[in-house]
Amino acid sequence: MFYKRMVLFGLFWFFLFGCVPQSQHVQKPAQQADVHYKLGVSFLHADNPTLALKELLKAVEYGPNRSGIHVSLAQAYQFKKAYPQAERHYLKALELSPKDPRYQNNLASLYLDMEQWDKAIYYFDEASQNLLFLNAHNALAGKGYAYFKKKDYVAALAQYQEVLTIAPRYAPAYFLQSEVYHEMGQVEQERKMLEQAIDVAPNYVRAIYQLGVLLLKEEDEPSATEKFEQVVDLAPDSEWGLKSVQMLRSLAH
């Protein structure tokens, strides 16, 4: 009798735990997708697109119908300048989540990198028109930049002005206008926009550096030197800090 009870007890535990591997197996793809996706995103944030790509390729195997994974994978490809692959995954994300303005904005940014200005304008426009998109001003600025690269300066300025109606303290819109005026040869307007950008964002090192360059062209060396020194103080290891160091060295000679 005792032996029989032990056999039945053993069979009970066998059937109880025999179900667990099957349940885990069903959940495994979703769990694995989450693990690799989170790792991939963390590597993206750490500026390590190679390791991000490795993890996100695994994530997309386990979660092929998750739009967020495709977007992150596209970003990793974009960082590595593998633009056709990035485009494919952005488009897949939009197929899975149609009309998502974040994905449209990301795809438009990719088309800027690919120098496909008309496609960039189309997707930035789609994103900016979505009333639920929190960063519509970014999309409009991107659209303006695409027009700028097409040398349609009037359209570019119109877009930047629209940006400022939505976000009047969005400093990049002033800086982007300064680039347009530079190409148009309107130095006073260029300077005005750079000063406004710095007024809105006092630590905007790129604008400060560019204002220093403009002042140097106007042969105002003391003011230019002051701007370059300011950039070095604010961001010595940045691209603009290193450029400012070079400018200061050239001025010293």
Level of helix content? over 70%
Give the helices and strands as they follow along the chain: HHHHHHHHHHHHHH
Which blocks of ≥5 consecutive residues have pLDDT under 50?
A: 1-26
Largest sheet: none
Total number of strands: 0
Going by helix content, strand content and strand pairing, the class is: mainly alpha
Question: What's the Cα radius of gyration?
Answer: 27 Å
Mean pLDDT: 90
Q: Count of DSSP helices?
A: 14
Strand content: under 5%
Give the end-to-end Cα distance, rounded to a whole number of Å. Answer: 103 Å
Shape: globular
Task: Give a brief outline of the structure.
The protein is 81% helix and 0% strand. It is mainly α. It is globular, with a radius of gyration of 27 Å.
Structural commentary:
81% of the residues lie in helices and 0% in strands. It is mainly α and 253 residues long. The chain is globular. The termini are far apart.
What key attributes describe this structure?
253 residues; 14 helices; 81% helix; globular
Please render the helix and strand layout as text.
Layout: H1 2-18, H2 20-45, H3 49-62, H4 67-79, H5 83-96, H6 101-113, H7 117-128, H8 136-149, H9 153-166, H10 171-184, H11 187-200, H12 205-217, H13 221-234, H14 239-252
